[in-house]
Amino acid sequence: MSFPLPEPMRLALDLARAAAEAGEVPVGAVIVREGKVVATSANAMRGEYDPTAHAEMLAIRRAAAAIGNERLGDCDLWVTLEPCAMCAGAISLARIRRLYYAAPDPKGGAVAHGPLFFAQPTCHHRPEVYAGIGEGEAAAMLRAFFAARR
Amino acid sequence: MSFPLPEPMRLALDLARAAAEAGEVPVGAVIVREGKVVATSANAMRGEYDPTAHAEMLAIRRAAAAIGNERLGDCDLWVTLEPCAMCAGAISLARIRRLYYAAPDPKGGAVAHGPLFFAQPTCHHRPEVYAGIGEGEAAAMLRAFFAARR
Q: Would you say residue A1 lies in a domain?
């Protein structure tokens, strides 16, 4: 028996899959505000020659531009992989309200691993964090991507 | 008796000063490759409605775009303030060779404070770090900026 995923995570996973087909590490992100999607993205580091073009960063930049405000305090971010330190820092700076992520990232994650960024006393804004929604599909997609490149 | 600052830090401080005049928190950054400046930037969070538009992020994105490579392994970054977690993460992802920063940031810094990002076992690339060059001028500029806004 299986249950459908929440719509924003379903969309983020579909964006991740499309990224993989374009040769990018499959991570997708969606930002929701007042029940509406305000930004979507996927990893684009290779396509854009931009080491900062993680899905979360692009989604945050797009949402802030769309709303015309650098603070996204009424926005929730859905992403298929645990954010790294760069992205966790950006989530905090943008004042994202809730973070939903699918797969854990023991090697590069900074939320439940490594620097545990949101738990630092110098972290000025912590989102509510919900992990594991869509984890199986997100992790399988990443494994398949890296296996095909080995 | 005083000595002139290294040219990239002099330039970064001048960029920070110009940012303050435009209402941005005064932080400037410069990326040098093979003795040549390949990117310059200053904070632009307010002007661009972009919470990720820290000087370091813009400099890294501009350098990667200019060089046509998401890896900046032969580049050095000069910045007037200790990088935050977001920027430290980006420095690592971009494989920056050396990081020179002026003023420490006990509240938001992630290099010598808070998450000590480059010291984490999950940090995959650590630049050489040189702190304090131009510290007095950078710190005075930040203090004056915030004092005028209180």
A: no
